[in-house]
Design goal:
By secondary structure, the protein is of the alpha+beta class. The chain is built from 7 helices and 11 strands. Strand 3 and strand 4 form a beta hairpin. The chain binds a DNA duplex through helix 5.
Length: about 280
DNA sequence: CTAGGATCCTGTCAGC
DNA sequence: TGCTGACAGGATCCTA
């Protein structure tokens, strides 16, 4: 579930918390969630955190990096003098940890802890030599992010999948990096494009607009602090839905389109729940 | 090569 | 209450 804005929010927030700290121990509660030996990261200090599409890369001071992918339900929850939590919004953000969804626990020398929680176990943390990060299969195959692409290049990339529904194509990280199910729906709504249109029918101007939509909706979400603890739990302790801060269609089925007043409906496209305004999106 | 569907896994919710 | 099926903010693998 975490998409580019959520991962970027984690990158920024977590870096504040763990930069310079030394990992003193690693506890693995689920073997498939931590790929490789934990010994190579114990004793190392955190230098930096990078992001490639939806993947996080934690760089250590011993030439080792940890590639983390949260997939559908991953969360990073830091507990120390300061607290931070981001990723799939759930009560884990404010729960006693570790709990039954905790897959990996990173302990720091000074007593703080970082929990990698992941209900569905699709996500993972994987230590790798820092110099090998760019050669990692997933990272190496990533397309540029929307800010690093011109409309023309995006249009050409869409043309390679002209028979597939445009929504399925923009969810492909080898076509454009960062969009997931929420921001794909939001970007298509922004550009007034129906998600079932074949990618081959998208004009150069529409491709440009869709690219602008991708940038805009993700920037808005990063500004809103993409599903962090701060937005999940309001000051009075009640739950807040951070989608309310920017979503025009996602999760708004049955409500009115803010552009034209028609009802937002939920359909299925390429097996994914899809939210549209049938009047606005052609 | 592309397109489409199954698959990994746990948990929740609607409906009977 | 218990069961069943659908669904879930991702990506890969397999088949045609």
């Amino acid at each position: 579930m975490p998409e580019l804005p959520e991962v970027e929010t984690i990158r920024r927030g977590l870096l504040e918390c763990i930069k310079g700290k030394k990992i003193s121990d690693v506890k693995i509660f689920c073997d498939k969630s931590f790929i490789g030996p934990k010994e190579v990261i114990i004793g190392a200090k955190i230098l930096d955190i990078r992001r490639f599409g939806k993947a996080l890369v934690i760089d250590l001071n011993n030439e080792v990096s940890i590639i983390c992918h949260l997939r559908m339900t991953g969360q990073m929850i830091y507990r120390g003098a300061q607290e931070f939590a981001g990723g799939h919004p759930s009560d884990n953000f404010v729960a006693e940890l570790p709990n039954k969804q905790t897959r990996v626990e990173f302990d720091f020398e000074t007593g703080e802890k970082l929990f990698f929680n992941d209900q569905r176990k699709f996500g993972f943390c994987k230590p790798i030599q820092t110099e090998e990060v760019l050669k990692d299969k997933f990272i190496a195959s990533l397309a540029p992010e929307p800010w690093a692409m011109k409309g023309e290049e995006f249009y050409q990339r869409l043309q390679r999948h002209k028979g597939a529904p445009i929504k399925a194509v923009i969810l492909d990280q080898k076509v454009i990096a960062g969009l997931g199910n929420i921001y794909a729906d939001e970007a298509l709504y922004f550009a007034k494009i129906h998600p079932e249109r074949r990618a081959g029918t998208i004009s150069p101007d529409e491709a440009e607009l869709l690219l602008e939509g991708a940038r805009t909706v993700m920037e808005r979400s990063i500004e809103a602090g993409g599903s962090t603890m701060a937005t999940y739990r309001k000051a009075d302790g009640t739950k807040g839905n951070y989608l309310d801060l920017f979503a025009e269609v996602f999760g708004r089925q049955g409500k009115e389109c803010r552009r034209c007043g028609a009802e937002i409906v939920k359909i299925k496209v390429s097996g994914r729940g899809t939210h549209i305004c049938e009047r606005c999106q052609k």
